[in-house]
Amino acid sequence: MTIGTLARAGLSAAAILATLATAGVGVAGPGDDCPPNPEPGKCYEKVYTPARYEAYVEEEPARADQGPGPARVVVKRRQIREASFGWREVSCENGGVPPRRR
User: Fold this and answer.
1) What pLDDT is attached to residue 79?
2) Which H helix or E strand runs over 44?
3) What's residue 15's pLDDT?
4) I need a labelling partner for 39 at 20 to 30 A (CA). Which of 10, 20, 28, 60 fits?
5) Domain spans of the chain?
6) How does DSSP classify residue 100?
7) What is the mean pLDDT of residues 41-64?
8) What local confidence, expressed as pLDDT, does residue 34 receive?
9) How far lies 55's CA from each of 2, 45, 61, 77, 96, in Å?
10) CA-CA-CA-CA dihedral for 34, 38, 40, 43, to nearest 10
11) pLDDT over threshold 70, residue 4
């Protein structure tokens, strides 16, 4: 049984997925929701790590169009680490569903 055979039989996409699921056939997505090379029997969760920034102080000299005067102190920030997604192994209790954080 192939998807093409089911589609030619006039079944809707939902009916095709239901037929494949009951036949024990897995329907894989693009792979974004699975870690690369997962080990059988282990559970994983996708973790978002936000970007990290560092604040610093910089003195800017007075601009010529403003006339003579003291330098300005400006607080700036620079990025230390980019935001990223990674995988972490978790306990497989509750069917592999990690507990909700509040």
Assistant:
1) 94
2) strand 43-49
3) 67
4) 20
5) 1-29
6) P
7) 88
8) 83
9) 57, 31, 19, 4, 39
10) -60
11) no
